[in-house]
Amino acid sequence: MPRPKPLAPVVLEVSGLRKRFGTSTAVDDVSLTVRRGSIFGFVGPNGAGKTTTLSMVTGLLRPDAGTVVVGGTDVWAAPTTAKRKIGVLPDRMRLFDRLTGAQMLYYAAVLHGLDRSAARSRSDDLALALGLDGSLDRPVRDYSVGMVKKISLAAALIHSPSVLVLDEPFESVDPVSTAQAVDLLQRFAAAGGTVVLSSHNMDLVERVCDSVAVIVEGRILAAGTLDEVRAGESLEERFVELAGGRVAVEGLEWLTTFSD
Ligand SMILES: Nc1ncnc2c1ncn2[C@@H]1O[C@H](COP(=O)(O)OP(=O)(O)OP(=O)(O)O)[C@@H](O)[C@H]1O
């Protein structure tokens, strides 16, 4: 388990974020503090508000209230400066999927001001690290779901931002590629980079993250170091408790009657 960084400077400060969609509140007064060198896990049940929060953190969705400060820059007051510091893997990204993997990485690099040769060599490095070498010349629309995640992760990393915000980076990614991606994130954090990631994989969060926040129905119910949040239990047990426990499954007898 990675060690928390209690004395490291704060690089991401989220205060009082709120977002409503129509009459329902998706994110309700969310505040988070993430320190330099940390790998911070953001967990919660389906529909809890993770994607909505991370979209507001990265400047993709305007909050109704609250502030987000990345590396001393207010994301919503100075979005251009802030976005240079952030690498984003959104949950449901619309990709220019007629491009090949190589072209996608090239454009991600050039849009962030890298020159042609840095773009090429970084693309090759990332493709190798994430097991995409051999696939870079294929159009992204022909990629599998896991491959799309990996090329999107590579695109988030290519400009070496100081803060990475990754929405479910390991979903549909095979175990070998996940291990390689984790390795990459750990190297990034050890060198002083900061990672915020959401995941439904509690074992992985326990292995990789030093700090965690649990969001349920738009509110943070627990946040702190991994040990503080799991409070002597496994993260999964704690998560289930905070999320309101398991609901006993009743009815559904028809499910075992088999129509054939
Ligand atoms: N554009 C939108 N319009 C209306 N409601 C939305 C919109 N985006 C999200 N919501 C609602 O906000 C709530 C939070 O959704 P969000 O996608 O942030 O959850 P999540 O924690 O990321 O869920 P999951 O784990 O299933 O990905 C949900 O009730 C969802 O239906």
TrEMBL record:
MF terms in GO: ATP binding
Entry membrane topology: Peripheral membrane protein
InterPro entries per UniProt: AAA+_ATPase, ABC_transporter-like_ATP-bd, ABC_transporter_ATP-binding, P-loop_NTPase
PROSITE patterns: ABC_TRANSPORTER_2 (PS50893)
SMART domains membership: AAA
Keyword tags: Antibiotic resistance, ATP-binding, Nucleotide-binding, Transport
Residues annotated as domain ABC transporter: 12-242
Primary site of residence: membrane
Cellular localisation: Cell membrane
Pfam families: ABC_tran
CDD domains the UniProt entry points to: ABC_DR_subfamily_A
PANTHER family from the UniProt entry: ABC TRANSPORTER ATP-BINDING PROTEIN (PTHR42711), DOXORUBICIN RESISTANCE ATP-BINDING PROTEIN DRRA (PTHR42711:SF19)
Name by which UniProt lists this protein: ABC transporter ATP-binding protein
Native source organism of the sequence: Microcella humidisoli
